[in-house]
Q: What sequence folds into this?
């Protein structure tokens, strides 16, 4: 459904974008909404903008609470380790119990509903990699509409690198998973790869508009895309279009709302009678879209698989670096994502490193000659040993 916004609404959105002050931004968003016609085609858009306003309001409250020394609830948790994984689920599925079993966090496991009210970060090790798990306060029907701490929980999901969606096998696991997926989708956090992506990277004034299409435009031409962007006064940006994309998706990206997070389903309470039947129904529902790990946190069963499944699902790779002339590589690897190159590695070591990069020597079983002298575009794989030489 096209939104067909009137030009004054588009102008107003440009004003929203150029406003930094949260209070003024909310004000402009309100004005924007009053200019958006109320019909079915604009329903999604209106919902998205209202949600943004709600998040901004929460952030303002949080900042106020901090200034008053009350240190209110935290929206974001500083990232640590190879990836930050948000632990999501309805209440009582055993999220705290999982943290207690696989990390050394102090947790409150309780049969009372909604026992965890603030996010709890903790570190889980898998071989020589650390994942940061963050228990999010429970998801419930209405979370995405701002019920209880819903927006905070969904902001944690958006900010994380990956998700664990946890369900209780003894209590309608398919219903629980659907509820969580539904709230995530309303918050525009998707767990299945979209057929296309639009990234709008805004640039400084005068940079001009550059549109790069790697995929295919389904119902429009480059000209249409450019006209749409210009109608929102986006004239300085690099716009990357990959996969299959409709003009609607481009408009969606103007309001930059949809993100994709790789998810792993953890099905808990395998020890309870009837859990096997629940697991079969759950696997039928998931149908291979995400990995499913069946566990009993209480009985400490099945948990040993979790690290490997996260490692694989999140596409983590480990690189062991070595000083030129040293015999042994460092013990602790750098962690990157599948598809990373030497340039990414150099950047993650130090910003200067990428600039001063001369060449590298790589030791790996897959290479015919190991070590091999390679350039900055070399594609790394898990377990590679690398020696970087600078100019
Ligand atoms: N039978 C069984 N019970 C479990 C298992 N894991 C957790 N529980 C029980 O489930 C209840 C809830 O566990 P929590 O870990 O507090 O659940 P939670 O998801 O953190 O709940 P909230 O923080 O309140 O949203 C407790 O009574 C636990 O003892 C399990 O593997 N098997
Ligand atoms: Mg809990």
A:
């Amino acid at each position: 459904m096209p939104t067909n916004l009137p030009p004054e609404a588009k102008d107003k959105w440009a004003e929203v974008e150029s406003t930094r002050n949260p209070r003024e931004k909310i004000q402009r968003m309100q004005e924007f909404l009053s200019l958006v016609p109320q019909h079915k085609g604009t329903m999604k858009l209106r919902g998205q903008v209202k949600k943004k306003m709600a998040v901004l309001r929460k952030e303002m409250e949080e900042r106020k609470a901090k200034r008053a020394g009350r240190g209110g609830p935290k929206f974001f948790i500083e990232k640590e380790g190879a990836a930050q994984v948000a632990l999501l689920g309805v209440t009582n599925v055993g999220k705290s119990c999982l943290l207690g079993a696989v990390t050394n966090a102090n947790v409150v496991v309780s049969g009372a509903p909604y026992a965890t009210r603030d996010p709890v970060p903790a570190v889980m090790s898998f071989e020589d990699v650390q994942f940061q798990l963050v228990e999010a306060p429970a998801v419930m029907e209405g979370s995405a509409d701002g019920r209880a701490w819903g927006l905070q929980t969904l902001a944690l999901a958006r900010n994380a690198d990956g998700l664990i969606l946890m369900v209780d096998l003894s209590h309608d696991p398919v219903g629980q998973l659907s509820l969580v997926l539904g709230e995530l989708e309303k918050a525009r956090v998707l767990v299945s790869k979209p057929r296309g992506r639009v990234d709008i990277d805004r640039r400084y004034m005068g940079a001009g508009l550059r549109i790069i299409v790697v995929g295919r435009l389904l119902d429009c031409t480059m000209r249409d895309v450019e006209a749409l962007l210009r109608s929102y006064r986006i004239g300085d940006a690099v716009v990357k279009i990959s996969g299959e994309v409709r003009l609607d998706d481009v408009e969606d990206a103007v309001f930059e709302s949809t993100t994709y997070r790789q998810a792993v389903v953890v099905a808990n309470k395998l020890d309870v009678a009837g859990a096997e039947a629940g697991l079969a129904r759950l696997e039928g529902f998931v149908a291979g879209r995400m990995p499913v790990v069946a566990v009993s946190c209480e009985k400490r069963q099945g948990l040993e698989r979790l690290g490997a499944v996260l490692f694989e699902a999140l596409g983590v790779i480990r690189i062991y670096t070595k000083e030129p002339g040293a015999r042994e590589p460092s013990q602790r690897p750098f962690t990157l994502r599948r598809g990373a190159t030497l340039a990414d590695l150099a950047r993650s070591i130090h910003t200067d490193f990428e600039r001063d990069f001369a060449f590298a020597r790589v030791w790996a079983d897959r290479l015919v000659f190991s070590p091999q002298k390679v350039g900055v575009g070399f594609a790394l794989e898990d377990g590679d040993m690398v020696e970087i030489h600078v100019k």
Notes: The mean pLDDT is 91. The radius of gyration is 23 Å.
